[in-house]
Amino acid sequence: MTKQIAIADLGAPQLTDAQRGGIEYMEANPVEIGLDSILESARERTGLGDFGPDDFRVRLGRLIDEWNDDNLLQVNRMILRDMAVRHVTTRLLEQDYRKQHPEFRDEVIDRPIIVVGLPRSGTTHLLNLLGSDSRLRSLPLWESSEPLPNPAEPPREDGRDPRYARTAELWEMAQVSSPLSAAMHPMDPDHFHEDLDLMCPNVASYVYEWMSRVPRWRDCYYAEDQTPHYEYQKAMLQIMQHAAGNTRPRRWVNKCPQHLEQLRVLKAIYPDATVVLTYRDPVDAIQSAATMMGYAERMRYSSIDTQGLVDYWSDRVDHLLRACVRDRDVWPEEQRVDVPFEPFMKDPMHFVRQVHAKAGLETTAQSVAEIEHFVETHQRGKFGQVVYDLEGDFGVSRQELRKRFDYYFDAFPDLLSRPTDD
């Protein structure tokens, strides 16, 4: 039986000794977050100096302005700075790769499969099922975090890729500082991750909204055409594909919720893709996001605004879904698979076969065996299952919140049914 986990101290955290000790140590050793120091750290790591087009500096500056919040704990300042250094380090590496191997542009990203849907709507499980097929290539976390190796970095004595080892060490640290993380969102090195990480060296995407409070960043993202960042992402896939040659599968399966509000851009950049859209009650996504972010904020901020969290993520989900309702049909039926949550959870292989059929793949005995092996070796809920309490934790009625999304249920009546009893 899956262990049930209730977070009783969401708004007023009772810190563990390890959490308290980490916060106290970092508060005594403050971290500076500045544009010049971040760029210099990336230069030192790589020995490179060409960052390419300078527009990324404006976006990074916006983030830094919001990260220099007096309410931000030093332990999170360290994490955010390290993340920014990692992203611009990758930018230096990819710019160098472009110069050394201009032929990478000849790489064809052929008919990718792209899973799109709200958080907690089955996207991760579906990606993992599809990605366990050895004919397809996906993005494990260690590779999405650092897509290119750093030639200036010496090899490890244990023979592991330094990028993999770093991701594993960060995951071990995260389980100490945030012990319920594994139950809400596993981040082990082999976990298939979102393709949006490939936009981060361009300092783009909504990834940063999950790392800290950046409402001004979100507003700038809303106001700007995201096409250049999707073009950058595609170039990253081309570089990774070129670097791997024929040692890795050459057909991609990726996913991200952000694509819900960028379906037209996605179609322009990946016109021959098969898009797999998942559908679920948006209240589930909101309570999950607000709870996960509320739990993470005990190590991020000196105080937690639970009302602000539920308001922010209600607005965020609303923005995603309004764009989806508006633009879904830009993907014609012959390139789209619609996956309602409840039927998917009852019979996932039915939808895997649908995806294969639309994508022009045969569901072979080997692919079925690989998927079954994944299911057997990755037990769902093995880290426990968080019990969500939207009304108790945030003072919001599920039924009342759901009314905000009537338009979504009305738009897709064959794929969604309104819950009658919460």
List key phrases describing it.
single chain; mainly alpha; Rossmann fold; two-stranded parallel sheet; 51% helix; 6% strand
Structural write-up:
It contains 19 helices and six strands. The two termini are 22 Å apart. The longest helix has 27 residues. With 422 residues, the protein is mainly α. The protein has a single domain, classed as P-loop containing nucleotide triphosphate hydrolases (Rossmann fold, 3-Layer(aba) Sandwich). The strands form two sheets. It has a four-stranded parallel beta sheet with strand order 3-2-4-5. It is 51% helix and 6% strand.
Please give the order of strands in the largest beta sheet: 3-2-4-5
CATH topology: Rossmann fold
Q: Based on CA inertia axes, which overall geometry fits? A: globular
Largest sheet: 4 strands, parallel
Q: Strand pairing plus helix content: what structural class?
A: mainly alpha
CATH architecture: 3-Layer(aba) Sandwich
CATH class: Alpha Beta
Count up the domains. Answer: 1
Beta strand %: 5-15%
Average pLDDT score: 94
Helical run tally: 19
Number of strand segments:
6
Backbone CA Rg = 21 Å
CATH homology superfamily: P-loop containing nucleotide triphosphate hydrolases
Gist of the model:
With 422 residues, the protein is mainly alpha-helical.
Helices and strands, with pairings:
Blueprint: E1 4-6, H1 17-27, H2 35-46, H3 55-67, H4 74-100, E2 113-116, H5 123-131, H6 141-145, H7 162-177, H8 181-184, H9 215-223, H10 227-244, E3 253-255, H11 263-269, E4 274-279, H12 282-296, H13 306-327, E5 336-340, H14 341-346, H15 348-359, H16 365-377, E6 385-387, H17 390-394, H18 398-403, H19 406-411
Parallel strand pairs: 1-6, 2-3, 2-4, 4-5
Helix pairs in contact: 2-4, 10-11, 12-13
